[in-house]
Design a protein that fits this description.
Elements (H helix, E strand, L loop, with lengths): L2 H23 L17 H13 L5 E7 L9 H15 L4 E5 L5 E6 L2 E6 L9 H10 L14 E8 L5 H17 L7 E4 L1 H35 L2 H24 L11 H25 L4 H28 L7 H21 L2 H9 L9 H19 L1 H19 L17 H12 L4 E9 L8 H18 L3 E3 L1 H12 L13 H10 L7 H6 L7 E7 L4 H18 L5 E6 L1 H35 L2 H25 L10 H26 L3 H28 L7 H33 L11 H4 L8
Antiparallel strand pairs: 1-5, 1-6, 2-5, 3-4, 7-9, 7-10, 8-9
Helix pairs in contact: 1-7, 1-11, 3-5, 6-7, 6-8, 6-23, 7-8, 7-10, 8-9, 8-10, 8-23, 9-10, 9-20, 9-22, 12-23, 12-24, 13-21, 15-19, 20-21, 20-22, 21-22, 21-24, 22-23, 22-24, 23-24
């Protein structure tokens, strides 16, 4: 079979596979499921899932905060009419189960055999406003939950159907905003918070940013490719190959039913900038061979032969960098690592099938300046190589000082996260959440399960008293601003049975009084607040609440103190407790971040070590390869410590990805050196020749990688911004180490050079490079 027929057949097969991938890509969906970020396989996750089956999710709510007009309080009749109209609108929405609102709050009173509800507010009776406000601000559980302490804002708490997805959530938002517009409530006076708020905003922004990042990357890479090759095919062919690899990668992801989330949204950009490496190495080598006068067939043969091995190894190391993310217990990171790693391998396959096929069918390209263009790079790289040799002591000294400083600064990096910490502090959504932290109980859920000892239930007096002491600690020491439990139910019923007076809002004095009260509990058990706080048989209860989002470091300290307090003060023969909830699970991710990162880096380093040992059978060469690639990682860790950037879910992937990508050029360099050493036994000449051959591709690919990742700086997600910034810095430091430290370390470790080896050769000194290097 002729070469052209083989190329046609290759294009046909690849075209069919690309069409199949396109079919699956059309089925891709965007998703931001808050629950996906829980640590998979964790015993606490299993426990929480059972807990939600008993009591429901702790984040199935929507907070709608409304500020009173300037100069008025929340007791203004006109404002209360607006609040009541919005309350009735919210109650009619299909995804809303119940609404807690200032205008529907009532003080229950039991008289005879009936239960009567006395409203707290009487907006139609202005004379009662002072009494209403006094009663509200003396009643536990209202201020901070429904009314702000300064009487300038109120909150509607909407209890939603479990695990509400984005389409019905968006419909709810649309209905509420339309209602506010009809009622002439300015959007600046309304604030939303809750899981479905983050879900809606994140998915919409993911779609927008995916388009923006890809567009910017295509423009940037197109410009760099044109400056590098100055030919239309030098721009178009790499773009076709990499865009095809992206389509394949997304197609496989869609075929396995994986959606695009905050992490997998980075896959197209990652693959675009990373997958470009092999195509640039191939085309650079192909252009060089053509420039030196080789025929098209010979140039392609030499290119495939000399670039295939190094590209295969670099694809392996890069994909391993992503595959190591599969050690994460966080499902989005696991999926991102798996499918991006697969896509990198697919990009390599297309680079050595699709690209050569297109080069065969293209015909011999006409180069603008066949020889001078190649030699301009040789001259620049030759002079740079000479300067590196002459300034070797300064390079080693500066590297050592920078390394020492980076290690010191890296100790300042902390693992810390908070709700919505992927949004900047100035983001309107995050400011809305901060509004509830300032004016109300906060947005961070708290959950503690109450398990009475055998033979008891949550309404036993000793159990209630233990629970009340826990509530006191949580309010006074822990920082919980709102709490509800079976104690709340019993106190409320006792108050209702005694005329509704505030002085009656307390636990029964003895078991005799409690027994009389337990009989009346049946009148209230159909209320949703009862089923949300205690099981029907009383075998388990729930202490739930909200607090300010204090961050995971502070939360970990508070939880440790709470557990110690519970062990010391709670009688296990009466009551057992267990801390649970969505916030607790998110905090647990931090415990795994360091371990997962160390595991990923260890696997990466081990695999690179094995590859270098197989290539050179030399421990010294292994050290040579690791130093210039680990140094940038440590420097970036120092930058994080200096800038106060915390380690969190989104930034924990930086080091493993950066190492896997940065080592790519090193693998190309040493694989070319290995081939060169087969023809040139003199180590100095072999290193110099490899430097000139690989230098152009190293610089070009590094510029494209840094430029591609720099597009992430336009992200509105802080995590994505720092991924772009820190990986870009790592690669920038990496190329500097590649062009300075790497050749010196090879000369020093691989074979100790003689003093004469460190003097520049005349060809280098004069900048002349007749013939091939």
């Amino acid at each position: 079979m002729s070469l052209r027929r083989l190329a046609h057949l290759t294009l046909l097969v690849l075209g069919l596979l690309t069409a199949l991938s396109g079919f699956f890509v059309a089925q891709l969906r965007f998703n931001y499921n808050f629950n996906d970020f829980y640590p998979a396989g964790d015993p606490d996750l299993d426990y929480y899932q059972g807990y939600t089956r008993r009591f429901g999710n702790d984040n199935d709510y929507l907070l709608l905060g409304l500020e009173a007009p300037a100069g008025r309080t929340v007791f203004d009749p006109a404002f209360l009419r607006q609040v009541d109209s919005l309350t009735q609108l919210a109650r009619r929405q299909p995804s809303v189960r119940s609404v807690t609102s200032p205008t529907t709050l009532a003080n229950p009173v039991v008289e005879g055999l009936g239960v009567f509800s006395l409203p707290y507010l009487h907006p139609q009776e202005p004379a009662r406003r002072a009494d209403d406000s006094t009663l509200i601000y003396r009643t536990p559980g209202l201020v901070g939950n429904v009314f702000s302490p300064d009487a300038r804002a109120v909150t509607l708490v909407l209890q939603l159907t479990p695990d509400l997805e984005k389409p019905p959530g968006d419909s709810l938002f649309a209905a509420l905003r339309a209602g506010m517009a009809r009622l002439k409530i300015p959007e600046s006076q309304a604030h939303f918070a809750g899981r479905i708020v983050a879900q809606s905003v994140f998915v919409d922004r993911l779609k927008w940013e995916l388009v923006v990042f890809m567009s910017l990357s295509v423009l940037l890479v197109t410009g760099l490719l044109w400056l590098t090759f100055r030919t239309w095919w030098g721009v178009v062919l790499p773009l076709v190959v990499v865009l095809g690899a992206i389509l394949w990668g997304l197609g496989i992801m869609a075929a396995f039913g994986v959606t695009i989330d905050l992490m997998t949204a980075l896959l197209p950009l990652m693959l675009f900038v990373v997958g470009m490496s092999d195509t640039i190495h191939i085309i650079s080598r192909y252009v060089s061979e053509l420039g030196y006068g080789a025929s098209k067939k010979d140039a392609l043969r030499v290119t495939i032969k000399e670039s295939g091995f190094g590209s295969g190894l670099s694809a392996l190391t890069t994909s391993l960098g992503f595959f190591t993310l599969m050690t994460s217990t966080i499902r989005p990171i696991h999926n991102f690592g798996l499918f991006t790693g697969i896509a990198v391998i697919l990009a390599f396959v297309l680079s050595f099938t699709l690209l050569p096929a297109m080069l065969v069918l293209l015909g011999r390209p006409q180069l603008r300046e066949p020889r001078r263009q190649g030699h301009s790079w040789d001259g620049v790289l030759g002079r740079l190589f000479r300067q590196v040799l002459l300034r070797r002591r300064a390079i080693f000294t500066v590297s050592g000082l920078v390394l020492a400083a980076a290690i010191g600064l890296s100790t300042r990096v902390r693992i810390n996260s908070s709700l919505l910490d992927d949004l900047s502090k100035s983001d309107p959504v995050r400011q809305d959440f901060a509004f509830f932290d300032r004016q109300f109980a906060g947005v961070r859920p708290f959950e503690l399960e109450l398990k009475p000892a055998p033979g008891r239930d949550v309404y036993d007096l000793p159990v209630l008293r233990q629970t009340e002491r826990i509530e006191t600690y949580l309010r006074d020491t822990y920082g919980l601003r709102f709490a509800a439990s079976p104690v709340t139910l019993v106190k409320s019923v006792r108050k209702a049975l005694n005329g509704g007076g505030l002085s009656e809002y307390r636990l029964p004095a003895d078991t005799t009084e409690l027994q009389r009260l337990r009989g009346k509990l049946r009148l209230f058990r159909k209320r949703p607040e009862f089923s949300a706080l205690a099981l029907p048989d009383g075998s388990a209860g729930r202490l739930t609440g909200r607090m300010a989002d204090v961050g995971s470091i502070r939360a970990d300290a508070l939880n440790a103190a709470l557990r110690q307090h519970l062990r010391a003060t709670v009688d296990s023969t009466v009551l057992r407790t267990r801390l649970t909830g969505s916030s607790n699970l998110i905090d647990k991710n931090n415990e795994n971040l360091t371990l997962n990162m160390i595991q990923g880096m260890a696997i990466d380093v081990a695999m690179v070590t094995l590859i270098v040992l197989c290539l050179f059978r030399s421990v010294r060469m292994t050290v040579v390869v690791l130093i210039p690639n680990l140094l940038p990682i440590i420097i970036v860790a120092g930058v994080m410590g200096l800038a106060g950037v915390n380690m969190k879910v989104s930034t924990s992937i930086i080091f493993t990805i950066a190492f896997g990508i940065a080592v790519d050029d090193t693998i190309h360099f040493i694989s070319k050196l290995r081939l060169t050493l087969g023809k040139e036994p003199d180590i100095f000449k072999a290193v110099r020749r490899t430097y000139l051959l690989a230098g152009k591709a190293v610089v070009t690919t590094s510029l494209i990688l840094v430029g591609g990742f720099s597009t992430l700086l336009f992200s509105k997600f802080d995590g994505t911004f720092y991924v772009g910034l820190l990986i870009g810095l790592t690669l920038l430091f990496g190329v500097v180490a590649e062009l300075t430290l790497l050749p010196l370390l090879i000369l020093y470790f691989y074979k100790r050079p003689k003093p004469a080896l460190f003097t520049a050769e005349p060809a280098v000194r004069n900048g002349a490079t007749p013939g091939r290097p």
